[in-house]
Q: What sequence folds into this?
């Protein structure tokens, strides 16, 4: 919150900082990218291969089948070519219950991909499930590369020959764990990519990035499915069904958005362990990568310490914020009065946040999310001209000057909005401004200029004391 606090000695710093703020470029829209889907039966190393291709640990990996349950998108690059890499859950034909939903996600990923990587376990050899998947892929009208994984040494190369029986051409023998021949595989992927991605029916126009966060089982995946109008994220009555962030393009109110459904946050990242640790870490990364965050709260239950911690983490990350109170269909008049008191007491740090009361189950008021998101993002991008800001600030400080500190009253000599996303004000002063006075300035600033839905940072630079001449 104070990364721009410091000192100044020369008035030219005013102009330099203001000029830099004026020249800040707005992010350009991203061009559409071809899609590469990674599919296969459970526990063949799909997520390990995804991490190997990305060159970093993004997908959650654990030595048990079924850790990946949704289809998750990542940006990848090889030989200067950008593409979207989609990790999927294990495909098991004839599955039921939760596994059937996971299989459906894998099938959907294949239908939307430009290139498909079918990952099989070279040590086990072709199974009935592998043959069923290969049969479907042979009928598809897109390139399919057969990846023989877990070839960790030369002695296992003869085992790869049996995979020719799948009818998908030459298998690429790799070790996702150790990186063996992964470069050759990526060369083949890039060579198979089309010049332009397949038409998906959606026009890509730089969709704004929205992270959907909250406690486990608060209804994040259900809300995402309601917004998309399809079973986009796996939903189950068991808390913690979502492990990785799930990326979705969603059209709301005539505008395209990129929604990221995240794992439920139970604990602080530092105190989580195993899969939960990596899921929490990826949720934090999803917040950092987002432009606006929807924090989903269960309106039918009292606000918890974990709810407040999540809201605070979003504000501290400097992201635009919308509070969505879910399960509103379960809220009666008495609960509404209780909730109002809880909000006044617990959410005192974010009175500026947009609020929407929704029901992911019935679809109540979900159409109000798009206007709330737009309002928050407009504020997040807003900039007040320097002249207008200083004129307003001079009148305010004349009426309510800063409190005296150390026997002297600080003066504010110049102010500029040094940045957006989030809006950041820098005040050049003759002395330190107390936190309480900064909060006063922020409140008055919002009353004058708006900025609903976004945090505001106010930093102070104090004039250096010049050494006395001897």
A:
């Amino acid at each position: 919150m104070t990364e721009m606090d410091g000192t100044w000695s020369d008035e030219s710093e005013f102009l330099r900082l203001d000029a830099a703020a004026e020249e800040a470029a707005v992010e350009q829209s991203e061009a559409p990218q071809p899609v590469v889907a990674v599919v296969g039966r459970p526990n063949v190393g799909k997520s390990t291969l995804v991490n190997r291709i990305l060159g970093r640990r993004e997908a959650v990996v654990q030595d048990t089948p079924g850790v990946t349950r949704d289809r998750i998108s990542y940006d990848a690059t090889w030989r200067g070519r950008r593409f979207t890499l989609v990790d999927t859950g294990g495909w098991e034909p004839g599955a039921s219950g939760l596994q059937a939903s996971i299989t459906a996600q894998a099938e959907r990923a294949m239908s939307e991909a430009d290139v498909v990587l079918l990952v099989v376990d070279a040590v086990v050899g072709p199974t009935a499930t592998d043959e069923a998947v290969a049969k479907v892929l042979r009928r598809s009208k897109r390139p399919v590369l057969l990846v023989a994984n877990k070839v960790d040494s030369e002695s296992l190369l003869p085992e790869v020959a049996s995979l020719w029986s799948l009818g998908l051409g030459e298998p690429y023998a790799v070790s996702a764990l150790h990186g063996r021949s992964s470069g050759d595989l990526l060369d083949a992927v890039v060579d198979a990519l089309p010049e332009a991605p397949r038409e998906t029916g959606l026009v890509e126009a730089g969709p704004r990035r929205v992270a959907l966060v909250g406690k486990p089982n608060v209804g994040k995946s259900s809300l995402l499915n309601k917004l998309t109008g399809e079973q986009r994220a796996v939903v189950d009555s068991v808390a913690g069904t979502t492990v990785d962030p799930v990326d979705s393009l969603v059209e709301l109110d005539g505008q395209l958005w990129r929604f990221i459904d995240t794992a439920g946050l139970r604990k602080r990242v530092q105190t989580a362990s195993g899969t939960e640790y990596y899921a929490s870490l990826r949720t934090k990364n999803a917040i950092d990568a987002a432009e606006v965050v929807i924090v989903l709260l269960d309106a039918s239950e009292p606000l918890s310490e974990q709810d407040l911690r999540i809201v605070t983490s979003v504000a501290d990350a400097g992201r635009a914020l919308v509070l969505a109170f879910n399960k509103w269909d379960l809220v009666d008049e008495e609960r509404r009065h209780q909730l109002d008191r809880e909000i006044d007491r617990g959410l005192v740090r974010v009175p500026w946040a947009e609020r929407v009361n929704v029901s992911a189950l019935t679809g109540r008021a979900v159409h109000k999310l798009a206007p709330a998101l737009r309002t928050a993002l407009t504020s997040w991008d807003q900039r007040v001209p320097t002249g207008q800001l200083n004129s307003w600030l001079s009148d305010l400080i004349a009426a309510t000057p800063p409190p005296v500190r150390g026997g002297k009253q600080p003066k504010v000599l110049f102010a500029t909005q040094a940045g957006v996303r989030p809006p950041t004000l820098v005040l050049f002063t003759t002395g330190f401004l107390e936190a309480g006075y900064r909060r006063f300035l922020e409140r008055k600033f919002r009353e004058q200029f708006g900025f609903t839905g976004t945090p505001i940072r106010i930093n102070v630079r104090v004039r250096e004391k010049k050494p006395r001449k001897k």
